[in-house]
Amino acid sequence: MVDRYSLTSSAALLAERFSVELPDHYKPRYNAAPTQLLPVITSSGSSGISWFYWGRPPHFAKSKNLAEKIINLSTETLLERPVLKKMLMQNRCIVPADGFYVWKKVGKKTAIPHRVTEASHKPFAFAGLWEEFEDEDESMVHTFTIVTIKSNDLVLALNERMPVIFDKVQEDIWLNPHSSEIELMNILHAYPSNKMGIYTVSSLINNPAKDHPSLILPTPASDQHGNLTLFD
Question: Are strands 37-42 and 92-97 parallel, antiparallel or unpaired?
Answer without folding.
Answer: antiparallel
